[in-house]
Design goal:
Layout (H helix, E strand, L loop, with lengths): L3 E4 L2 E4 L2 E2 H8 L3 E5 H15 L4 E5 L6 H9 L3 E4 L2 H9 L7 E3 L6 H10 L3 E4 L2 H14 L3 E8 L21 E2 L3 H10 L3 E8 L9 H19 L6 E3 L17 H12 L5 E4 L3 H4 L3 E12 L6 E5 L8 H5 L5 E3 L9 E6 L8 E8 L7 E4 L21 E5 L2 E6 L4 H6 L8
Parallel strand pairs: 4-20, 5-6, 5-13, 6-7, 7-8, 8-9, 9-10, 9-11, 11-12, 12-13, 15-17
Antiparallel strand pairs: 1-2, 2-3, 4-14, 14-15, 14-19, 16-19, 17-18, 20-21
Helix pairs in contact: 2-9, 5-6, 8-9
Length: about 425
């Protein structure tokens, strides 16, 4: 469910017309719905139980206003860098609700996280464990840790967002985990508190979750029997969202049932790290048609828009699907086959190929739906294109929550050496 709907023939974000925003701010731009963010958080929270710690995956959408809205709901943060820790803190997320994930934490990042007294480090290797112990000892701090285990479960998702198979870079093997926990118990300034698992993103089946959770439960019981304190089970995120109209992945309620069936008797605190599930359908990318290109002797038609792969890289990077709809409502029966492409000088700058798209003309507005996660946050200035601005709508209120950089601001980051 989201709060992007047609009213009087025009697509609105809550009570604000997207055409009005395009007129005032220019295109392309991202638009987020505050009501959708709150609703998705609340639905997920209810599905896994109010006592669970929900830590939003900041990598999916790091806009400070988005994080502020979720912080007000009681949401924590799953972070993968010092920068993301700083964003979470700036949004008002308490350190005790911050989980630090990622395979390559630097000692500087560890120091900063320890100084903030964050809830948990999700560790992924023995060298990382040794480095954290030494860093914590130097600061006179205690590091609360879990190991992220790799259960070798195929999530059935795109290869570039699969994280739970043995060939992926993430986590430690189930076979090696007992030795890792034994080593952690020997090191100073380390407190083991549980286990973490995350098998991938955009899962559309519950069975991989069940399989992974069952393997983690077996490991947890074995570690407890060996004398380790396993009080926290961080079950990650990954539940998919409906990118394509009419295709529905399992609901949060169904996911919550799997959690209850597998972990309900473990007497552990549960941690979850949803990102896409909360933010994905809470955002859209609005773009304007520049040209319609069609050769007279060819049926191939191109709709060229002013958004590009530097604004939304998911279709190019992951072959990802985003529903494309017009700002002015049109009957789907009028749609035509065309490619929707951007102006960047790459063949990969293609949002949709041979897709049924609205019969638009130059200056018409199109919307890429489900763009609230891994959209603006993965943007770049490739081809010297300014980052797309981000707008937050809340009822009938709206604000630019990340402005579009001017060309002067883009040039100002460069410094020519004296000899030039």
């Amino acid at each position: 469910m989201d709060f992007f709907h047609y009213k009087n023939g025009e697509l609105h974000a809550e009570n604000v017309a997207l055409a009005q925003l395009a007129e005032e701010i220019g295109t392309p731009f991202y638009c987020y719905s505050a009501q959708t963010l709150r609703h998705h958080y609340q639905v997920f929270s209810q599905s896994v139980g109010e006592k669970a710690k929900i830590c939003f995956a900041v990598k999916s959408n790091s806009n400070l206003a988005v994080l502020k809205i979720l912080a007000a709901e009681g949401c924590g943060a799953d972070v993968v860098s010092e920068g993301e820790i700083r964003l979470a803190l700036a949004a008002g997320i308490a350190p005790e609700n911050i989980v630090f994930s990622g395979v390559g934490k630097t000692k500087r990042e560890m120091e900063f996280a320890l100084e903030q007294n964050i809830f948990q480090f999700n560790l992924e290797s023995l060298p990382e464990l040794e480095a954290l112990s030494a860093t914590a000892q130097k600061l006179g701090k205690e590091a609360r840790i879990v190991f992220r285990v790799n259960p070798d479960v195929d999530a059935g998702t795109h290869a570039k967002i699969s994280t739970g198979k043995k060939e992926n870079k993430f986590g430690v093997s189930m076979e090696d985990a007992p030795n890792y926990y034994a080593r952690a118990a020997q090191l100073p300034n380390i407190r083991v508190q549980g286990i973490s698992v995350h098998i991938g993103s955009q899962l559309t089946s519950l069975e991989p979750f069940r399989h992974a959770f069952e393997r983690v439960k077996k490991l947890a019981l074995s570690l407890r029997a060996a004398g380790h304190k396993i009080d926290v089970l961080d079950l990650g995120g990954g539940l998919g969202i409906p990118y394509k109209h009419g295709q529905l992945p399992p609901s949060p309620a169904e996911y919550g049932q799997i959690v209850q069936e597998t972990m309900g008797d473990m007497d552990c605190s549960l941690v979850f790290e949803p990102g896409r599930l909360i933010a994905g359908n809470a955002g859209v990318l609005v773009t304007k048609v520049i040209y319609i290109k069609q050769a007279s002797n060819d049926d191939k038609k191109f709709v060229i828009v002013d958004a590009a792969m530097n604004d939304l890289i998911r279709p190019s990077l992951y072959d990802a699907w985003h529903d494309i709809v017009p700002v002015k409502e049109m009957p789907t029966s009028s749609y035509e086959i065309a490619d929707v492409v951007g102006p960047v000088c790459e063949t990969g700058d293609t949002f949709a190929a041979d897709r049924d798209v609205p019969p638009v003309q130059a200056d018409d507005l199109l919307v890429f739906r489900s763009a609230g996660a891994y959209g603006a946050v993965m943007g770049s200035t490739y081809n010297a294109r300014p980052l797309a601005p981000e707008i937050l709508v809340d009822g009938d209120k709206y604000a630019v929550v990340r402005k579009r950089a001017s060309y002067e601001e883009m040039l100002a980051v460069y410094n020519l050496p004296d000899w030039l």
